[in-house]
Amino acid sequence: MNKMNKEFAKPWPIGPPGLDLISLGLVDVEKLLKYELTVEDGRRLSKEYSRVLMRKHRQRQAAETTLLRLKKEAIEALPENLKAAALVPDLTPFPVNRRSLDDWKVEVFSWRLQGLLLLLWHYESII
User: Fold this and answer.
1) pLDDT tens-digit map of 90-100
2) 0.70 exceeded by pTM
3) InterPro entries, per this entry (predicted)?
């Protein structure tokens, strides 16, 4: 552990050599906030972040459910000839130049949080 502290004792450049924020003078090392986080703090932060993500997910699901319910109500309010046309499923192929939903990666918060904790730990060690 002491070896790691010595390794990160000096400012750690973020960006290309000579163009990082500390070398350019845009960030003052003495004015950086000092964070002292423990493993328990990290676990608590990750749980809270997970709760936030779940809350957003539930809100998105509720909005989609509402939109589907409104769509069904709108179709039911149409006259019979338009209702029959609206109930025919759209089977046109997906555009080739657009990405489908399964091409996107699932958001994983642990890597983001791990990077944040590493950054905070680094700045704590240089102050």
Assistant:
1) 888 877 776 65
2) no
3) Ribosomal_mL40_metazoa/plant (IPR039145)
